[in-house]
Write a structure and sequence with these properties.
Layout lengths: L2 E8 L1 H5 L4 H14 L3 E7 L6 E6 L3 H14 L2 E8 L2 H9 L3
Antiparallel strand pairs: 1-3, 1-4, 2-3
Length: 97
């Protein structure tokens, strides 16, 4: 399955409800599984982003649906990156002219 990296920043609502953040992350991981996806990593980070999550999903549409729902909840704003493994990267560059 394709890999996605999600960079998250807390909203005002998110920081006010910070104590329930870990449970929301667990609940979102369960929701991802119901959508045929899997969270493979979740990190509280210091710096520009408050959280980083890594996951796998069957396609972009599933990720888009999940991310729209996550944003609509109001606790975080996200930037989503589609990631490629080293093997996928090698295949891509082999096709260059």
């Amino acid at each position: 399955m394709p890999t996605y990296i999600v960079l998250m920043k807390l909203t005002d609502q998110g920081i006010k409800a910070i104590k329930s953040g870990p449970q929301r992350a667990r609940d979102n991981a369960k929701l991802m599984e119901k959508m045929g996806s899997k969270m493979t990593g979740f990190y509280l980070t210091m710096g520009e982003y408050d959280y980083v999550a890594i996951g796998e999903a069957p396609n972009d549409e599933v990720v888009c649906t999940f991310m729209l729902g996550l944003g609509a909840a109001g606790f975080v704003r996200t930037t989503t990156l589609k990631a490629f493994t080293l093997e996928e990267y090698e295949k891509i560059v082999k096709n260059l002219p």
